[in-house]
UniProtKB/TrEMBL annotation:
<keyword id="KW-0547">Nucleotide-binding</keyword>
<feature type="region of interest" description="G-domain">
    <location>
        <begin position="80"/>
        <end position="228"/>
    </location>
</feature>
<keyword id="KW-0342">GTP-binding</keyword>
<protein>
    <recommendedName>
        <fullName>Translation initiation factor IF-2</fullName>
    </recommendedName>
</protein>
<dbReference type="GO" id="GO:0003924">
    <property type="term" value="F:GTPase activity"/>
</dbReference>
<dbReference type="GO" id="GO:0003743">
    <property type="term" value="F:translation initiation factor activity"/>
</dbReference>
<feature type="binding site">
    <location>
        <begin position="86"/>
        <end position="93"/>
    </location>
    <ligand>
        <name>GTP</name>
    </ligand>
</feature>
<feature type="binding site">
    <location>
        <begin position="132"/>
        <end position="136"/>
    </location>
    <ligand>
        <name>GTP</name>
    </ligand>
</feature>
<feature type="binding site">
    <location>
        <begin position="186"/>
        <end position="189"/>
    </location>
    <ligand>
        <name>GTP</name>
    </ligand>
</feature>
<dbReference type="GO" id="GO:0005525">
    <property type="term" value="F:GTP binding"/>
</dbReference>
<dbReference type="GO" id="GO:0005829">
    <property type="term" value="C:cytosol"/>
</dbReference>
<feature type="domain" description="Tr-type G">
    <location>
        <begin position="77"/>
        <end position="246"/>
    </location>
</feature>
<keyword id="KW-0396">Initiation factor</keyword>
<keyword id="KW-0963">Cytoplasm</keyword>
<comment type="function">
    <text>One of the essential components for the initiation of protein synthesis. Protects formylmethionyl-tRNA from spontaneous hydrolysis and promotes its binding to the 30S ribosomal subunits. Also involved in the hydrolysis of GTP during the formation of the 70S ribosomal complex.</text>
</comment>
<keyword id="KW-0648">Protein biosynthesis</keyword>
<comment type="similarity">
    <text>Belongs to the TRAFAC class translation factor GTPase superfamily. Classic translation factor GTPase family. IF-2 subfamily.</text>
</comment>
Length: 478
């Protein structure tokens, strides 16, 4: 895809034959239609007294193409990255604190823990990284930006409370992301703790304990007393082994932003999770729509480090602007290239903000189906009562048009919330509200994320609408 000899000659205002001769003297045998390597182009420009500046097209702004492929032999086991999810008050924060307290201090005594959005512990000889923001909102908003950082989800369910609405949401979010779930049955110390009930209730969501013939791991525990934590960590490592999580530490790093902010003294500060390769101080880097050089790097103990391998969370400075959580980062071989790509991405972002990205919507559903762009239609159903949500979901699932499948990725009771919109955005889904409306945040978020929200008061109308859209017979006045 490089520039050809003829094209280069034109740009340099030289004779093609002349250029071919010069190339030959430099050891490059090329005919006039041959594409040249960057090095040869640079050499020729130098010869003729020009400075080579490569043109970058918009396609070059896609960061992921700059990540080199690994060959299998270079891949080594890497630590799992874990997110803790579950209903409010079931003990997510307590569990995160408890794991950190019992495990971090015996790794590096005297370290002052620093909140950088994630931390890493060592259990026997193996490391595990935990994302520090519990809950599925952070998890899913990252995913909606195309980032998948979680390898394993811990679903915390309080044994005295059982499965609650956010438990179900968390399950659906983890399933949509195809992340394995380990159930932590928490608060076992409490009177009225009933782990069997938790297990029973979770069977409805295809989380069946091994004792009951399923393959989901359940760990009874008390986060507050620190009981069961070792078991949980062991199970995490077991699942990690099955998942065969691998990375290559001997290459330029790439990964995802966990959080970022503007610090008065230090400028833009970003917490990054290195997902592959090793990140080093001095590395030229593009982070989302920002760029720079890694000036300083600290780990979760606030310790300055020079190098961070796969699955390690670090905090860096040295960027020209503040990136967003969920943004990808990629290290480049030289600063000039990083700056070029970074600036282009910044431009592109500004343009993108003007026009909006296209998400799936009922209006163009048929078009997309016809073009083979979508084979599944993802729907989120919110209703005023559980009965209607289930009835509507069941009927929607039965719609069969030209072999296109309807997936219900989440059903729930109550107003349409921002978390529904974020899930819809991440999963390219349409939200259907039955006798409920979006709240203000959800409305704003739907607009921003371009999520199609459909409100209905009659079940068969909702079904008809989806069916019509799938057949390309949607009433234009909708
Ligand atoms: P989160 O909302 O899921 O992060 O829940 P928290 O970690 O904030 O815990 C909610 C409440 O439950 C707090 O008062 C905790 O002290 C309490 N809690 C958490 N884990 C346990 C436990 O294992 N046993 C008991 N008895 N209480 C717990």
């Amino acid at each position: 895809d490089g520039i050809t000899v003829t094209e280069l000659a034109e740009k340099l205002k030289k004779d093609t034959t002349d250029l071919i001769k010069k190339l030959m003297f430099s050891g490059v045998m090329a005919n006039k239609n041959q594409a040249l390597e960057d090095e040869a182009v640079e050499l020729m420009c130098e010869e003729y007294g020009y400075e080579a500046e490569k043109e970058i097209e918009v396609e070059k702004t896609d960061l992921l193409q700059y990540i080199e492929d690994d060959n299998e032999a270079q891949l080594k086991e890497r630590p799992p990255v874990v997110t803790i999810m579950g209903h409010v008050d079931h003990g997510k924060t307590t569990l995160l604190d408890s794991i950190r307290k019992t495990k971090v201090t015996d790794v590096e005594a005297g370290g002052i823990t620093q909140h950088i959005g994630a931390y890493q512990i060592r259990n026997n000889d193996k490391k595990i990284s935990f994302l520090d923001t519990p809950g599925h909102a952070a998890f899913t908003s990252m995913r909606s930006r195309g980032a998948q950082v979680t390898d394993i989800a811990i679903l915390v369910v309080a044994a005295d409370d059982g499965v609650m609405p956010q438990t179900v949401e968390a399950i659906n979010h983890a399933k949509a992301a195809e992340v394995p779930i380990i159930v932590a049955v928490n608060k076992m110390d409490k009177e009225g703790a009933n782990p069997d009930r938790v297990m029973q209730e979770l069977t409805e969501y295809e989380l069946v304990a091994e004792d009951w013939g399923g393959d989901t791991i359940f760990v009874p525990m008390s986060a507050i007393k620190g009981e069961g934590i070792d078991d949980l960590l062991e199970m995490i490592l077991l699942v990690a082994e099955v998942e065969e999580l691998k990375a290559n530490a001997n290459r330029r790093a790439d990964g995802t932003v966990i959080e970022a902010e503007l610090d008065k003294g230090r400028g833009p500060v970003a917490s990054l999770l290195v997902q592959n390769g090793s990140l080093k101080v001095g590395d030229p880097i593009v982070v989302g729509h920002t760029f720079g050089r890694v000036r300083a790097m600290v780990n979760d103990l606030g310790k300055r480090i020079n190098k961070a391998g796969p699955s390690t969370p670090v905090e860096i400075t040295g960027l020209n602007d503040v990136p967003q959580a969920g943004d990808r980062f990629v290290v480049f071989e030289d600063e000039k290239k990083a700056r070029q790509i970074g600036e282009l991405r910044q431009q592109k972002q500004i343009e993108e903000r003007r026009g909006s990205q296209s998400k799936v919507s009922l209006e163009d559903l048929f078009e997309q189906i016809k073009q083979g762009d979508i084979k599944d239609i993802n729907l989120i159903v919110k209703a005023d009562v559980q009965g209607s949500a289930e009835a509507l979901a069941a009927s929607l699932k039965k719609i069969d048009v030209e072999g296109v499948k309807v997936n219900i990725i989440h059903t729930g009771v109550g107003a349409i919330k921002e978390s529904d919109i974020i899930l819809a955005s991440a999963s390219n889904a349409i939200v259907i509200g039955f006798n409920v409306r979006p709240d203000n945040n959800a409305k704003k978020s739907a607009e921003k994320e371009n999520v199609d929200v459909r409100l209905h008061r009659i079940i068969y109308k909702a079904i008809e609408e989806i069916e019509a859209a799938m057949q390309g017979m949607l009433d234009p006045e909708y």
